[in-house]
Amino acid sequence: MDESRRSFLKGIGVAAAAAGLGCTFPLLRALASSGTPAAGVQTRQLCMVIDIEKCLNEDLIKDCTEACRIEHNLPGGESDPERQIRWMWTQKFEHTFPDQAHSLTPKELRGEQVPVMCNHCTNPACVKVCPTKATWKRESDGVVMMDMHRCIGCRYCVVGCPYGARSFNWHEPRPHIKNIRPEYPTRMRGVVEKCTFCAERLREGREPACVEAANRITEGAMTFGELSDPNSKVSALLKTTRTISRQNALGTGPNVYYIV
Amino acid sequence: MSDTRQDRITNHLTRPIIKTGRAYYGTLVLLVIAVIWGLIAYIVQLTRGLTVTGMNNNVAWGMYITNFVFFIGISHAGTLISAILRVSGAEWRRPITRVAEAITVFALVLGGIQILLDMGRPERALNVIFYGRLGSPLLWDVICISIYLLSSLFYLLLPLIPDMGILRDNPDIKGWRKEIYRLLSFGWDGNPEQKRRLEIAIGIMAIAIIPIAISVHSVVSWIFGMTIRPMWHTTILAPYFVVGAIFSGIAALILAMAIIRKVYKLEDYLKPIHFRFLGVLLITMTALWFYFTISEYLTAGYGGLSEEMHVLSAKLTGEFSGLFWFMVMSMTIAFIALVFFRSKHAIGATVIASIFIVIGMWIERYSIIVPTLTNYAVPSHEVRIYYPSWVEWSITIASFCGFVLLYFIFVKLFPIISIWEVEEAEEALGEKIEVIKDYMPGKTSATTES
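ok -> C-alpha cells follow
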C-alpha cells in the first residue's frame, strides 16, 4: 500500500516535471524565434513603397480600394466604418504618422488621406500572439498570411496589431458581396482577415491589385518588389528617396514605406 | 472532545443539506430563469454572429474579456486565501476555507466560459490544443488556468473527505445523495493513519497552489502586457493584476460569508472576528491597490509618451473619467469603511467595503481593457466609444447568476463549513498553547531544538 503510494507520487512528480520541461523548451524556442532577424542577414521580404503625393488623388484611391474589394470578395454595404472588412483603406496623414505630423505640417498633407494596409512587418505583433498559428509570416517572401479555416475568432491579433490592419467578420459576409468572384474564396463570419499582398496574384507572378490599379492612373504611385534584392525597383527607390514608415519606434519593422 | 459538542456542530453544519426552505427554491428558480435568459441571448449571438455585441474592429474586446479577467480575479479568493491561511497556521481559517475554495472552482468555470463566449468560432476551440502555439500568451493562460482549475478542484475535494464520511453515516440521508457521499468519502473511517495522510496531502496542496494561483493571474495580465498597446505594455501589469485579484477575491469571500451566515443562521460559526481579520487583510490589499495604481498612472503621466497620454487623459478627464473616478471613489469608501468602522461594526463595515471593492474591481478591469482599445493614437475614423449591447449585458448578468447558482447547488450538497476542521479546533487549542509557550522567553519545551 505504502510502496504503491510512493511510486504513484513519484510517477506524478516525474510526469509534472516532464510536462513542465516539455512546455518550457518550445516556449523558449518560440520566444527566441519571434525576434527580428540579425542585421545583414538576407531574408526575403516583399515590400511596398507608396508615393504619398502621387496618391493624393480621389480617383486613384477609389480605384485601388475597389480593385482590392473585387479581387478578394470583400463585403460592402457596412454602415459602421469600424466594422468594415478592409484590407486596404485610407486615413488622415496625421493619424497615419502621429509621430511625424506637427501643428505646422504642410497644408497639402494635413488632413489628406493616405492609403494604408497591412505592413507585413518583419516582427509582426499579430503573429506573435496568435494561439493557433492561424496567422504566420511566410518564410519564402515575408508575407503575413492568414488561415481562415483555422482561426478561432479570438481577435487577439486584431487587438495586438498597432496599425488596425485586421478586420473581424462580425456578421455573415457573403450576402453583402456584390458579385462573388468564384476564383477567390469567400469567408464565413467569426474569423479575422487581412491584406496578403495579393498572395493569389503573387503566385502567378503578378503584382498586387492595388498597385496595378494605382499605377494605371499615376505611374509610380505604388511600387512593389523584393526588399533584399539590390536590383529591385523598391530598393532603388528606398536608397534614393526620403521614405518613412508607420510607428517605427514600436519595433515591428513595417514593410510598407511612404515617400514624403 | 465531548460527543454532544461534536453532534451539535455536525447538526448545525449539515442542516442546510438536510432541510430545504421555500426561499431556497424561490431563489433557485430566479437564478435558473436568469441563466436561461442568458442562454437565449447566447443563441441569438450564435445565430447572428458577434455583430449583436457592441464591439468593433477597434474595441475588439469588451465585456466578455472584462468578465473573464474579473472572474479569474475572484477565483483568487479562495484557494489562495485558504492556502495562505493554512500554511501560516491561522486558526481562525477553519470555518471559512471551504466557503473560499468553492468560490475558486466556480469562478474559474465561469471565467473560462467567458473566453468561449467571446470567440467568433467557438466550435473550433480545440484548435488551441491541436495547433496550439506556445508563443501566444493565450496558450499560457489555457495551460495555467487548466492546472489551476484541476488543482483547486482537488484542493476543494481533499478536505471534503472526512465530511463526506460524516454525511455518509448520517441516517437522515438516503438515496443518490448517500451514494455520492459514499463515493467521495473514499472509505474514510477517521483512523489516525488516514488523518495523518490527509494532513500531509492538504499541506502539500496548500503550498503548491500558491505559485499556481500567482502564475494564473500573471498570465492573464500578460495577455495584455505582452502586446505593444499603450497602457497595456507595462511591467507592472502582472503584480498589479495579482494584487487586484487577491483584493477582489477577499471581498467576494466576505460577501459569500455574510450571505451564508445570514441565510443558514451560522452566526455562531462565521463570527464578527472572522470578518475583522479578513478586514485587516482587505485594508492591506486596498493600500497595495492604491500604491500600484498611483505608481502606474504617475509613471505614465509623468513620462508623457504621446500614445499613452491619449489613453490616460481619456481615463482621467475624457470619456472614461466617470468610470475611472467612480472606481477611485469606491476604493476610497472601502478604505474608510474598513479603517474607521471595522472594529465597531465588523460585519457591516467589511460587507459595505466588499460591495464597493467588487464593483470597483470590475470597473478597473473594464477601464484597463476598453480605453486602450478605443485607439486614440491611430483613429482611422472618429473615435467611437464602445457600449455593450443587450446581448452582452444579458450574458454578463446570466454569468453572475450562473456563478451564484453553482454555489447554491454546492451548498445544498456539501457542508459549506468544514465540519471536521471546526471540530478539531478544540484539539488545536492545546497545541497552540504549547506553541505560544515555546516562543516565550525563559521557557524551553520539547519542540525546541539545540
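Chain B has one domain: 3-430.
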